[in-house]
Structure formats: C-alpha cells, structure tokens
Amino acid sequence: MLLAIDVGNSNIVLGLFDGTGDNAQIVADWRVRTDPQSTADELALTVRGLLGPLAGRITGISGLSTVPSVLRQLRIMVERYWPEIPHILVEPGVKTGVPLHVDNPKEVGTDRVVNALAAHRLYGTAGLVVDFGTSTSVDAISERGEFLGGAIAPGIEISVDALAGSAAALRKVEMVRPRSVVGKNTVECLQSGFVYGFAGQVDGIIRRIRKELNFTDANSFVIATGGLATLVIDECDTVMTHHPHLTISGLRMVFERNQASSRRTQRGSYPSRVPIGGARSIS
C-alpha cells in the first residue's frame, strides 16, 4: 500500500492507496491540523496512530509540504521510521512530467504541480484546477499537460478570521449556506457574503482565464478540490466536477512515475537524466 502525505498550510491530508495505476483505490484517508512546529517524532506518532494495524502494510510513501519547516521534519520522519520503504518527497529535482511555463519554476507550490498532473491524467485535455484551501488558487493546464500559471486569492477561512479580527461588531460564524442571499441577521449576512462572494470571485477568475486562453466547455475542464470546496462549489456556475482527493492522487502518480523510471534505469534501458534530488526545477 502507498501512503500519500499532503502537508498544507492549514491541514495535513493522508491517503492510503491499494493497487497501482488505473487500478489504484483509496482505502482510507485522514485530515489533521498542520502544526509548523511539529517534530519528526510527533509526525510519526500521528501517522502511526492513524494507520493503526495498517502501518505494517505500507510499501511506499509519497509526500509534499508547502510548509518548509514541516518538509524537513517529514523527510526525517520517513528516513527514521520507514528507512527500508521506497519514498519520494516532491520538491525541486523530482520528476513529475509537468513542464512549468512560468517565470520562476521554483516559486510554484508543489501541491499545484501535482494537482496539474492528476487533473491532466484524469481528463487528458486542457483545463483549470480550483483548489479551495488556505488560499484559493486557480491554475491553468494546457492540452499537453503544461502548467501555465494561474491566480491566487485569500482563502475562505483566513478571510473569515481577518474580518472577525478587524471588525469589532462582527464575529466568526459557522460557514454554511444561508437560507437566502439576502441575509436577515448578521450571521446570515456574513454567511451570504462569504459563500456567494467567493463563488462569484471564482467564477469571475475562471471566466477571464478561459477567455484569455480560448478554453471552452468542449476543449477544457474545470475541476475543484481542497478542504473547503464543498462549501462553495454548488454555487459556482463554472466548476464542472469535484475531486476531493486530487492532490494525494497526484502524489501517487509522481511516486509511480519515479519508481518506473528507477526500474528502467537499473535495467540499463537508458541513463537517468534527472536524478531525484539532482536538478533544481520541477518538471
């Protein structure tokens, strides 16, 4: 079984895959809070506790972290607690098969790269990935699977926190869809502003990107992912589908790609041009 670990700014998502390629299935998944101060031992305690008896069945680990301090601890954890198991952490130098057509490839978050990989593998055409996380990102992918760039906006939760912290008369509210767009009390007004406001923001960005890149319903997709996607996507006119496990599915694909490349190199088919941890750009 492959363990995929996606460390985001707010949450750590773990997924356990059985099988490979098109036959791979998620048999379990978990979501826990990200603590930038976590040590490798604390991470291992959390992961082993969640896995329970399945911990002994892990045959591979694939991970990423958008939090630099946790990436280092994640690397230590894997090497200390699963030293004999093949593993890969997505960072500059790791082959993903996603060309980055941006000014500085090193600036692109690894989560955005693996999302692009997974989305293109799923649909095989051009499209957009909307990730509702700590930030709300909209990323464009070409027909050939190239990462073209995108847009990043503040996420829903941090916007709620910022408003509650800056406005004396307002407070944090449960983020659910209100009974109507026109709120009849302060709680409903806040809920309406966030739910329909973010839906309108995402729709506006998507329409502008699609117009700029000549994307249409016939030649492109729009897929949503991220922990807060379910709060907004029903109100988005442009989102076509929802894939809650897109990032960890991309991590599985990166792992399988690099394992296959390693096996070919060992058989002497051709030399590895980009060894893991060697080059300094994600491609």
UniProtKB/TrEMBL annotation:
<dbReference type="GO" id="GO:0046872">
    <property type="term" value="F:metal ion binding"/>
</dbReference>
<keyword id="KW-0479">Metal-binding</keyword>
<keyword id="KW-0808">Transferase</keyword>
<keyword id="KW-0630">Potassium</keyword>
<feature type="region of interest" description="Disordered">
    <location>
        <begin position="262"/>
        <end position="283"/>
    </location>
</feature>
<feature type="binding site">
    <location>
        <position position="134"/>
    </location>
    <ligand>
        <name>ATP</name>
    </ligand>
</feature>
<dbReference type="GO" id="GO:0015937">
    <property type="term" value="P:coenzyme A biosynthetic process"/>
</dbReference>
<keyword id="KW-0547">Nucleotide-binding</keyword>
<protein>
    <recommendedName>
        <fullName>Type III pantothenate kinase</fullName>
        <ecNumber>2.7.1.33</ecNumber>
    </recommendedName>
</protein>
<feature type="binding site">
    <location>
        <position position="131"/>
    </location>
    <ligand>
        <name>K(+)</name>
    </ligand>
</feature>
<feature type="active site" description="Proton acceptor">
    <location>
        <position position="111"/>
    </location>
</feature>
<dbReference type="GO" id="GO:0005524">
    <property type="term" value="F:ATP binding"/>
</dbReference>
<comment type="pathway">
    <text>Cofactor biosynthesis; coenzyme A biosynthesis; CoA from (R)-pantothenate: step 1/5.</text>
</comment>
<dbReference type="GO" id="GO:0005737">
    <property type="term" value="C:cytoplasm"/>
</dbReference>
<feature type="binding site">
    <location>
        <begin position="6"/>
        <end position="13"/>
    </location>
    <ligand>
        <name>ATP</name>
    </ligand>
</feature>
<keyword id="KW-0418">Kinase</keyword>
<keyword id="KW-0173">Coenzyme A biosynthesis</keyword>
<comment type="subunit">
    <text>Homodimer.</text>
</comment>
<keyword id="KW-0963">Cytoplasm</keyword>
<comment type="similarity">
    <text>Belongs to the type III pantothenate kinase family.</text>
</comment>
<dbReference type="Pfam" id="PF03309">
    <property type="entry name" value="Pan_kinase"/>
</dbReference>
<comment type="function">
    <text>Catalyzes the phosphorylation of pantothenate (Pan), the first step in CoA biosynthesis.</text>
</comment>
<keyword id="KW-0067">ATP-binding</keyword>
<dbReference type="InterPro" id="IPR043129">
    <property type="entry name" value="ATPase_NBD"/>
</dbReference>
<dbReference type="GO" id="GO:0004594">
    <property type="term" value="F:pantothenate kinase activity"/>
</dbReference>
<dbReference type="InterPro" id="IPR004619">
    <property type="entry name" value="Type_III_PanK"/>
</dbReference>
<feature type="binding site">
    <location>
        <position position="186"/>
    </location>
    <ligand>
        <name>substrate</name>
    </ligand>
</feature>
<feature type="binding site">
    <location>
        <begin position="109"/>
        <end position="112"/>
    </location>
    <ligand>
        <name>substrate</name>
    </ligand>
</feature>
